[in-house]
Amino acid sequence: MSATPTSLRVAAVDLGATSGRVMAGRVSGRGIELEELHRFPTGGVRVAGSLQWDVLGIHREVLAGIARVAATGPLDGIGIDSWAVDYGLLDRDGQLVGNPFSHRDSRTDGVAVRVLEQVPASDLYAVTGLQQLPFNTLYQLVAARGSAALESAATLLLLPDLLAYWLTGRIGAERTNASTTQLYDVRTREWATDLLGKLDLPAGILPPLRDPGTVIGPLAPDLAREFGVSDLPVVAVGSHDTASAVVGVPAEARDFAYISSGTWSLVGLELDQPVLTEEAREADFTNEGGVDGTVRFLKNVMGLWVLSESVRTWQGRRLRNADLASLLAAAADFEPLRTVVDINDPRLLAPGTVEDPMPERVAALAAEAGEVVPRSPVAITRCILDSLAIAYRRQVRTAAALAGRDPEVVHVVGGGTQNELLCQLTADACGLPVLAGPTEAAALGNVLVQARALGADLPDLAAMRALARASFDVRRHDPRTDLDWDAAEARATR
Question: What are the structural domains, with CATH classification, of the chain?
Answer without folding.
Answer: 8-236 (3.30.420.40), 249-437+459-494 (3.30.420.40)
